[in-house]
Amino acid sequence: MSKERKHIKVTYSTLGSPDPLLHEYFEEDVAELKRNLGQRYQMLINGERVDGDGSFENCSPINTDWLLASFAQASAEQVNQAVAAAKAAFPAWRDTPWQERTELVNRFADLISERLFEIAAVVSMEIGKNRLEAIGDVEEAADLIRYCVDAMKDNQGFDRQLLSESDQHFNRSVLKPYGVWGVIGPFNFPAALTGGPTGAALIAGNTVVLKPAAEGSLTACMIAQCVVDAGIPAGVFNMVLGGDEPGIALAANADLAGLTFTGSYDVGMSIIRNFSTAAGYFRPVIAEMGGKNPAIVTANADLDKAALGVMRSAFGLTGQKCSACSRVYVDASVKDEFLSRLVDLAADVAVGDPTDADTYMGPIISEAAYNAYQGYVSELSDGNILTGGETLPIENGYFVAPTVVVDLPDEHRLWRHEMFAPIVAVRGVDGVDEAMRLANDVALGLTAGIYTEDEGEADRFLDNMEAGVLYVNRATGATTGAWPGYQSFGGWKGSTGSNKASGSYYYLQQYMREQSHTIVG
Ligand code: SIN
Questions:
Q1: Which helix (H) or strand (E) holds 346?
Q2: Which of 241, 413, 422, 465 has the fewest CB atoms lying closer than 10 Å?
Q3: N- to C-terminal Cα separation, the chain
Q4: pTM for the structure as a whole
Q5: How many domains does the chain contain in total?
Q6: pLDDT per residue over 298-313, tens digit each?
């Protein structure tokens, strides 16, 4: 459904002072969604809507009495049917001129933007994202796709003439698609991290089977509808729904040529180990596997900026971003001053229904996450909880308090474990070198931030940090808030399977393989 509305361009940085119409549109679409709860959604296989053998339901984490929708649950056989449909559709899609492919996929991106508020209302109700972050997630999906559209155009389809030995020789290098590409998406960016990789794989000429996170299924159904309405041919894009089983069946399918996975380190590493080599040759996995992201606050920091940036990155999306800040190393000389600012900000965080304009932090995603938060809090008794550490009785939802802890022993497992909860641990350090040593001493390396007014300290940080995304003095987020074209977003070490970032020059090429042609005539 398209509505006559003013186009409002959104990025995470423009969201700070949005057009008032943005609120009006979002509220209209939340009201409409609330009038239409409880519908049933099917999968998409070979252009057909398909029901599952089983079924599952998503209730809102804001209030578990709100049944958002019920969904067809894919069996392993249906996953294999989706891959078979994508395999059959591959030759024609591969042979479609790249200019036509990019036009169709660009239309997919434009439809996401046209339905921005409608999809964002779903993201907010389904995932518990606050309204601005929900809107950001959806528009980021469209911009990730457009970024790849532009990359394809700028590189003229990645078909380049090479040096020739003589005028009898014609030599070229061309990037070609792999075949059927699987996309396994996460719950926390249910639009950007299903739509973005799907768009990239399609532009490159692959056909796609998407398996979104079960918790983000309604968002994924709306993204899938944009693919269909863009006119992308049947079988080129397929979507299967459900929990872990369809994801496992997808990653086990021998006809899958490549895979994009966003999720936990453990699952990602197991996919990399098994999927990459199971065919007897290397199959690419583009994996983003989380973070344990540190912020460093030096003796030369602007402490107001530092506290604000850490608060935003630790508690935005209820601490459930891969880029969330969960560790702070602050110079001992300013530790108390920094902590008092951070604790005041944390205690003031507006927690509640994320569709409300004033809410900063919505609920945590599920009962399992709610229980995990309580488990972490009991482990934090090894340190000193300065604020938070409790569940909050709001609606009938999974609400928890933003939590700041200090004096956690260095060997405590939570210094290394990604919690995906609004908990940040703070430790005093003796200078920036000790801070960087501790910050780098984890297997994950997604994002990191520093606050310092000293250029030399900032340079040392940029030279030495083992993470894929670095921020210096950012009040809008110590470790979060990348936007395609503005910041590339991808990790190092255990945060990545490819060491290349999304929204960057090097992303789209990962969906293609190189072939050299020498023609003597
Ligand atoms: C994420 O993918 O978890 C977040 C992206 C960002 O915060 O920049």
A1: helix 335-347
A2: 413
A3: 55
A4: 0.96
A5: 2
A6: 999 999 999 999 999 9
